[in-house]
Amino acid sequence: MREQITGLGHIGIPVRDIDDTVAFYQMIGFRVVLDTVNPQNSQKVIFLKQKDVMLELYQQEETALVAGAINHIALDVNDLDAIYRYVCEKGLNNTKDTIHQLPFWKSGVRYFTIEGPNGERIEFSQYL
Questions:
Q1: Is there a contact between 85 and 79 (Cβ–Cβ < 8 Å)?
Q2: Which of 123, 95, 92 is nearest to 110 (CA)?
Q3: Can you name the residues that pair with 54 across neighbouring β-strands?
Q4: Quick one: which of 23, 51, 75, 109 is 20 to 30 A from 29 by CA?
């Protein structure tokens, strides 16, 4: 089985307002690669991509927005300070988080977290 898995396909996020959610993710660098409708339930589905990260957003009127086993999505960046300034300038730092540092990996990691329009936590992290 291990040899058959080639990578992470996508992360699916049920959303209350797909247009607002797409606009949010476009502000942090994602681009729409597919805009379609699920023929089984007529729900709008939009796939967004940034480098190797693919998100599947699907409109769901009664989205259950409770914390589950998946706590956050982490996006690796190469200049955390620049990303932090951008997020703050655009008014996206809705958690008022600051940059943190942990002694993980070889030399440590710096990160901060914001919240998407559907309550999803998005971490930006830079390995040192």
A1: no
A2: 123
A3: 49
A4: 109
Could you tell me the end-to-end alpha-carbon distance of the chain, in angstroms, rounded to an integer?
A: 33
Amino acid at 86: Y
State phi, psi for 13 to the nearest 5 degrees.
-130, 115
Looking at residue 50, its amino acid is Q
Taking the model in full, what pTM does it have? Answer: 0.75
Distance of CA 45 to the CA centre of its chain: 16
Note the CATH number of domain 70-128. 3.10.180.10
What pLDDT does 4 receive? Answer: 61
Instruction: State the pLDDT confidence band at 13, using cuts at 50, 70 and 90.
Output: confident
Classify domain 1-61 by CATH architecture: Roll (3.10)
Place of tokens 């914390």: 67
User: Which tokens sit at 39?
Assistant: 């023929």
